[in-house]
Design a protein that fits this description.
This protein is mainly beta. The chain is built from one helix and ten strands. A hairpin with a 5-residue loop joins strand 7 (87-93) and strand 8. The two termini are 27 Å apart.
Amino acid sequence: VLDTSLGLPLGKLYRLDAAAARTGRVDAVIDDLIVPNGLAFSPDGKTMYLSDSHASRQTVWAFDYDIDTGTPYNRRVFIDMNAHPGRPDGAAVDADGCYWICGNDAGFVHRFTPDGRLDRSIAIPTS
């Protein structure tokens, strides 16, 4: 049993492609994650977002994304959630390319513009 309170970076994001579906072999395309979450893609599919909800990370990264190979690259910090209420959790991207993410444990949903600026926060009547 994995104890996430230890903060061990054992999490990975895997890619399942046609070859993997035939062979049963999948490849990790991102590792060094503790509690991966918040996976979403820009409307054109060329940017992938991924968060780590662990209290020691609370970060959302953006990646350039190769649609043809399913490969994320050029990892960079998109949002440092330590500056906002709540830990990053589930997420989605709207038609304007804005990234919406739950501020878990704080009762908020936040919307960030494609350049990583907080656009709005909506209080939810629950923590």
